[in-house]
Amino acid sequence: MVHTMPLLRALISTARMIRNTPELAAGLPSDDEVLLDVPDERMGPTLVAAALGDYGPAAKLMAGTREAAEWENRDRYTTRLATFAYNREDWLAQWLAAAPRDPDALLVKAELAVHRAWESPARAERLREVGPLIDAAAQGSPRDPVPWRIALDHARGTHASYSAFGELWGEAVSRSSHHYGCHAAALQYLSAQWYGSHRECFDFAEQAAADALPGSLVQALPVRAAFAHLLSGGGTVVAYERVDAAADCAIALSAQYAAGDPWPAEVRNLLAYMLISRGRWTEALEQFRLIGPHATSFPWAYLSEDALAQFLELRDTARIQVALATPLRPSRRTARGIRSDGHYA
Predict the structure, then answer these.
(1) What does the domain layout of the chain look like in residue ranges?
(2) Tens digits of per-residue pLDDT, 242-301?
(3) Calpha distance 239→119 (Å, rounded)
């Protein structure tokens, strides 16, 4: 009888998985429907035009974000356009040739230059060379915090001192005190992977989240700190309770947005991974439902060269883990529900 118990458990687990996995797929798009880093309705046509060599839509879009002070969108669009220009720079070169002092073109140029410098074996030297491009972008649009986000990324790569970093941070927050991109860049500088520590990183993130506006993605900063802690192999330097509290804060933020909304997609992708890392499978599966078809490179690209495949694999893993924890027959315990760690509540 003793020898049959492992086999019996395996059979029960298999039966649970077969019965429950299809049901738990409800609300999840098929693998073929999930796309990586899908541009929004404004960026999509802009990229199509750029692919045809037309910079006009990009110029119009970026000018609109600057004039309307849409700093969060402006930051996202700058990054997206620079990423596109990394392999297709002809349209950007034409834009700069036609309008060499255009603050929007200068901003994309600065972001692209920093992106390329970061990949160089002589990173610090190359980054120092592109410093004047960041200065030009900042001078071209004095109210804009995005050049200062780029400057914070630049500072991290050039080994800038704490005092130099502090000056840049002051310039950034004086323009937009709750700008998510600037906060994320500062968080990286303060992480143990770079020039800070796990505790310093968490302290900064938690204070920023507490001060954030309702619905602001800055509320997800602690979960970014938790991810940085995980990446660096921080172990128990930061208590697991603090990591779980960061996830709880991000869950509350995610709940403020509709399912399938592309705006919080990156935060939800990161949150799903952090919940998986803590074995909170049921909550992770719920985030995958809220993500819908909007997979993002971050954080999956840190785990695999094929970010989309990694997303789909862990989404399936979450579904299977929840299925395995779901009883075959309804019972009083089932009625009370299953905790996120797979045990009965």
Answers:
(1) 43-178, 257-345
(2) 999 999 999 999 999 999 999 999 999 999 999 999 999 999 999 999 999 999 999 999
(3) 34
